[in-house]
Amino acid sequence: MAQVVVGRYAAQTDEPLVVFLIGMRINRLRAPRKWAPTFMAMVRMLRRLVAQPEKGFVHAHTILYWRGIGLVQYWRSFDDLGRFARSPSEPRLAAWRRFNRVVGYKDGSVGFWHESYLIDPRRCEAVYGNMPVFGLAKATDHVPAIGRRETARARLGGSEPAVPSSESDHH
After folding, report:
1. Which residue has the higher pLDDT, 168 or 80?
2. Taking the model in full, what pTM does it have?
């Protein structure tokens, strides 16, 4: 289990990156021969990416939800993500072809989704309190949320006074 880092921390990066959300939804629980291969393909892709960070993959974490699983992935660039997705030597292309052949858009037994966000480091902010190093902070730098990182507005380049989080902060 990841160690909790007590205190307030922020994610810090000077480089743009991509946050890529991808997942699947099991629409027919009694059709595991349709959805199990989709799930296993996600596992294979993630293993490959973790083993080969030079491809531009930075970090990921898993999200479980009713009837589905998702991954939050962090990439150096959209070009890196695209190269991985289109490369015949990577597991993603074969998995996509299999999905289209076996499930496609007529069957409906398993759904998929993805979202891509191109992140400008000047236009994003994140804060973590009493958390293991997580999310964007694990993909970039995990730094104390003090000074220009103390408030959301300040992390985005603005200025505002910090609102004390407890009575002891007034003294």
Report:
1. 80
2. 0.87
CB 120 within 8 A of CB 13: no
Provide the residue count of the chain: 171
Instruction: State pLDDT tens for residues 121-159.
Output: 989 999 999 999 999 999 999 999 998 888 888 888 888
| Cα(19)–Cα(135) distance, integer angstroms | 10
Put residue 153 in one of left, alpha, beta given phi > 0 → left and psi -120 to 50 → alpha: alpha
Whether the Cβ atoms of residue 153 and residue 160 lie closer than 8 Å to each other: yes
Residue ranges per structural domain of the chain = 5-13+126-164, 17-119
Q: Is the dihedral of CA 13, 83, 94, 28 positive or negative?
A: positive
CB atoms within 10 A of CB 154: 18
> At the top level of CATH, which class does the domain 17-119 belong to?
alpha beta
Whether 168 has a pLDDT exceeding 60, the answer reads no
Q: Residue 90 has which token pair?
A: 């990577």
Burial class (CB in 10 A: 0-12, 13-18, 19+), 51: exposed
**Could you report the per-residue pLDDT of 83-97, keeping only the tens digit for each?**
999 999 988 888 888
